[in-house]
UniProtKB/TrEMBL annotation:
Residues 20-263 form the DAHP synthetase I/KDSA domain. The chain holds residues 75 to 341 of 341 of the full protein. GO terms for molecular function: 3-deoxy-7-phosphoheptulonate synthase activity; aldehyde-lyase activity. Keywords: Transferase. One of its GO terms (biological process) is aromatic amino acid family biosynthetic process. Its EC number is 2.5.1.54. This is Phospho-2-dehydro-3-deoxyheptonate aldolase.
């Protein structure tokens, strides 16, 4: 099908801006949730040294249980902004409520739309009205075409900067948290000019499987890699069991860099 040249989405400003698409690989990393300034600062320093280009962290967490930690809210956004600036890392964080979109846009360089909200069309429309790049995760029961149509909700509001994310879909085997659909990467490139990245953390839920899936994603043409990193996984307030330690992330980032160079891409 005919479509324009691959889009390049820039996140952040100036020389620390991260690029996704058109031969650029964006490296998003950080904890699932923002827990404290001290902890985020430590993780950010480590991932930056390892080669990450965007810091992630949730201030509003879409938890399965209403009794689980829901995030620090605006205080978390403030911490994320401060720590990102200190380390020269643009920041991405999730908006889960149309009423928070303006606030999230104020503090962040990229707005995440989570898997649970990929078809929350009211939220998509509000995010589409902002001038911030968007990280749109594939819904856990969404087809690749569903994902494309959700991206249209953002694009049609006048916001062209959408990065898609394969984060696994519901499968029949509970050995993994989800099923990593690596074929979604070339399918999106076939259908669209938009960048697509992979999130092996939520796709597998298992740290020992993350490196293989991250490298497979990059080899399949992914325009970026999204990985959860925590310095004390056993103490994390969400998604601790799937987090890579900073040193594990550093080792993986070096491998990703080698694959990227081999296929003529830059980080
Ligand atoms: C997350 O990034 O922490 C998250 C909640 O991801 P997903 O929406 O893919 O489940
Ligand atoms: Mn998470």
């Amino acid at each position: 099908t005919a479509h324009p040249e691959p889009s390049i989405v820039s996140v952040g400003k100036g020389k620390t801006a991260a690029k996704f698409g058109g031969g650029h690989i964006g490296m998003i990393a950080g904890p699932c949730a923002i827990e404290s300034a001290e902890r985020l600062d430590e993780i950010a320093g480590a991932i930056k040294a390892a080669g990450a280009t965007v810091l992630r962290g949730g201030a509003y967490k879409p938890r399965t249980s209403p009794y689980a930690f829901q995030g620090l809210g605006e205080e978390g956004l403030r911490i994320l902004r401060e720590v990102g600036d200190k380390h020269g890392l643009p920041v991405v964080t999730e908006a889960i409520d149309p009423r928070h979109v303006e606030l999230v846009a104020e503090y962040s360089d990229m707005i995440q739309l989570g898997a649970r909200n990929m078809q929350n069309f009211v939220l998509l429309t509000e995010v589409g009205k902002t001038d911030k790049p968007v990280l749109m995760k594939r819904g856990m029961a969404a087809t690749v075409k569903d994902l494309m149509m959700s991206a249209e909700y953002v694009l049609s509001q006048g916001n062209p900067n959408v990065v898609l994310c394969e984060r696994g879909v519901k499968g029949f085997d509970n050995a993994c948290r989800n099923m990593f659909d690596v074929a979604a990467v070339p399918q999106v490139h076939e259908l669209s000019h938009l960048p697509i990245i992979v999130d092996p953390s939520h796709a597998t839920g298992r740290p020992e499987l993350i490196p293989a899936c991250a490298l497979a994603g990059v080899a399949a043409g992914a325009d970026g890699v999204h990985i959860e990193v925590h310095n004390l996984p056993e103490d994390a307030m969400s998604d601790g069991p799937q987090a890579l330690l900073p040193e594990q992330y550093a080792e993986l980032a070096a491998q990703i860099k080698k694959v990227a160079e081999a296929i003529g891409k830059t980080i």
